[in-house]
Amino acid sequence: MPFAFKTRREAESLGMADLPLVVLPHPLSSRAEDVIRRFAAETLDEVEYALAGPVDGLAARYHQRVAPLERTPVPGGEPTT
Fold first, then answer.
1. 73 vs 3, which has greater pLDDT?
2. Would residue 29 count as lying in a domain?
3. Which residues of 30-54 are buried (b: 16+ CB within 10 A; e: fewer)?
4. Are 42 and 24 in contact (CB under 8 A)?
5. 23: alpha, beta or left, given left = phi > 0 and alpha = psi -120 to 50?
6. Cα separation, 40 vs 22, whole angstroms
7. Is residue 57 part of a domain?
8. Are 21 and 49 in contact (CB under 8 A)?
9. How confident is the model at residue 23 (pLDDT cuts 50, 70, 90)?
10. Would 17 be classed as within a structural domain?
């Protein structure tokens, strides 16, 4: 999710705060090919909806999926993001 948070912030800084982002698990490269193919097939409808779905409610639906990074405590140090 850290990449999604950073992407959301970048979109906002470029004036595209309502850009729908489809969040994918990371990393994909270490997963078996059949798992990636199944995931791609299951995700295709959502990607299509984000690209061509109705504008009303699209921003709200996707903006809420990218939450701020949680602060993770580091043993012996200050929390980091």
1. 3
2. yes
3. eeeeeeeeeeeeeeeeeeeeeeeee
4. no
5. beta
6. 12
7. yes
8. no
9. confident
10. yes
| Close Cβ partners of 33 (under 8 Å, ≥ 6 residues apart) | none
What digits encode the pLDDT tens for the residues 37-64?
988 888 898 889 888 888 888 877 877 7
Domain hosting 52: range is 2-63
Number of helices followed by number of strands (H, E) in the chain: 3, 0
State both tokens at 54: 């109705």
Candidates 23, 17, 30, 18; CA nearest to 3 is 23
Average pLDDT of the residues in 2-28: 84
Comparing 13 with 60, the larger pLDDT belongs to 13
